[in-house]
Specification:
The protein is α/β, with parallel strands linked by helices. The termini are far apart.
């Protein structure tokens, strides 16, 4: 691992204190800072302290880690149930300690934070826990946790402050609801839980809670699935969760949250309006979790003062294809960019490439097509490339062919788990030699499976090449090498009643 350069090796920042000043210590900010430092630049990284203290100071990349760990906790619960089919004799009852889980997650956050500080130190990067505000185009005022202020100047500034959970303007929401990120640090079991939101995060949280033994979990999905998701696959995921025991309500809008009893957990009354809003329904829950999207963390940075243009409705920074804002020496990467996909891996890649363009003499821009994505639901959903909806809009539905199949993982066979839950589909462009436009997998470890398809799709993978691939028997990925049924055939059979 590179240890960075010594101070004597670094280039002179000239009239400025630093060559590069990065605002934001998440995955994108750390990536651009490390790469710039390795290229000989003097770098300052400012990261605003968490209002909840050091145990909650976790970057966007760290949130992904905690999601993966929470998913694993829930999967272990299912494995315990399956173990009897494999001959294991467990002493009953097997119980789960919520507080021990969240204590372990908090310890992991501390480890990630320590590792990050050590890594920045090894690269010779100056790191400050401080809120940043632009005073002029090259000057940033840093305010630490004690309220002490200091000004720093830099030739180039990068904004990488990420995003945070959205709180809607609904009575009682800020006072009584928590977010998915709060769940990682909740000191007590959430009890009967309502998860509100049409995002993937809502499905993740609901799956974890049910897997960890919560007796009742309800997901309120106010509207349609997100535009960047494949609607049919998400519906299959929701159906699987419903069969497992998670309840769903569709079309209702949360309108009020009231506290009935304090406690750990307490008791909340929620009011929601059904489609049409004629009557209002009420319900009682111990915990209400919001998963209603995320807001860019750009307020209070002084961006508009120095001429950086924002999308006024989203608060995100408008950038060109070089990640450059309306102010030529101020750049933005990660979730604060307008019109770009929020994605930890993509943000890190964009950060590294930006530093290489600025200081390494390179010209490579971040490749934003065929980026693999994953939902850490207990039934994992991973995808790479286009959704069915996007492919149809872009190329015409008559010009795409969808090959799909339900499959049964071998590890599910002995406990006799549902044969029709796991699913794979490949979306192809017919006129272009059935070039693969998208791959979608719903099943165990789908994220591990999908990673290799990113370079294959960018390289023009065709269905013929996929079919010619030798499958690794009997692993789940084998299903993608032997897809023969098309969605058109399946839908025709359903219409004819021959399914």
């Amino acid at each position: 691992m590179s240890k960075g350069l010594t101070k004597s090796d670094r280039s002179d920042a000239g009239e400025y204190d630093y060559n590069l000043l990065v605002i934001g210590g998440g995955s994108a900010g750390v990536a651009v800072a490390k790469e710039a430092s390795s290229l000989g630049q003097k770098v300052l990284l400012l990261d605003a302290p968490s209002p909840h203290g050091n145990t909650r100071n976790v970057s966007g990349c760290g949130v992904s880690v905690l999601k993966k760990l929470m998913q694993q906790a829930a999967l272990l619960g299912q494995s315990l149930k399956d173990s009897a089919a494999y001959g294991w004799k467990l002493q009953q009852p097997v119980t789960h300690s919520w507080s021990e889980l969240t204590d372990a997650l908090q310890q992991r956050v501390k480890e990630l934070s320590f590792d990050r500080r050590q890594e920045l130190r090894r690269h010779g990067i100056t790191f400050l826990h401080a809120h940043a505000e632009l005073l002029d185009p090259h000057t940033v005022q840093a305010t630490d946790t004690k309220g002490e202020q200091a000004s720093h100047t830099a030739e180039t500034i990068v904004i990488a402050t990420g995003d945070e959970p959205h709180y809607p303007d609904i009575p009682g929401v800020k006072e009584h609801c928590i977010t998915c990120e709060d769940l990682f640090f909740l000191p007590h079991s959430p009890g009967r839980t309502l998860v509100v939101g049409d995002t993937g995060e809502a499905l993740e949280a609901a799956g974890w809670l049910f897997g960890l033994g919560m007796k009742e979990v309800v997901v309120m999905r106010p509207s349609h699935p997100p535009e960047d998701s494949d609607h049919k696959v998400l519906r299959k995921l929701e159906s699987h969760m419903y069969v497992q025991g998670v309840n769903f309500t569709y079309g209702y809008m949360l309108t009020k949250v009231e506290q009935m009893e304090a406690g750990s957990p307490g008791k909340l009354r929620i009011t929601a309006s059904p489609p049409g809003g004629i009557l209002a329904d009420e319900g009682e829950y111990n915990t209400v979790i919001l998963a209603m999207g995320r807001d860019a963390c750009t307020q209070g940075l002084g961006l508009e003062r120095v001429g950086v243009k924002l999308n006024q409705s989203t608060g995100k920074i408008i950038v060109n294809d070089e990640d450059q804002s309306s102010v030529s020496h101020i750049y933005a990467i990660g979730a604060v960019q307008e019109g770009r996909q929020p994605h930890a891996g993509l943000s890190m890649q964009a950060g590294r490439l930006l530093a290489q363009r600025l200081y390494g003499g390179k010209h490579t821009k971040c490749e934003r097509s065929s980026v693999p994505t994953v939902l850490f639901t207990t039934m994992e959903y991973a995808a790479c490339g286009l959704t069915e909806e996007t492919a149809g809009q872009r190329f015409g539905h008559s010009n795409i062919e969808i090959f799909h199949e339900h499959y049964w993982p071998q590890e599910w066979s002995l406990p006799r788990r549902n044969k029709n839950s796991c699913y794979a589909k490949v979306i192809c462009h017919i006129p272009d030699n059935h070039r693969v436009l998208g791959v979608h997998v719903l099943g165990p470890s789908a994220g591990e499976l999908i990673q290799g398809f990113a370079p294959a799709l960018r390289g023009g993978l065709t269905k013929e090449q996929l079919d010619a691939t030798v499958g690794l028997h009997p692993v789940s990925a084998e299903v993608l090498t032997n897809l023969t049924h098309t969605q058109r055939e399946t839908e025709a059979m359903l219409v004819q009643g021959n399914c």
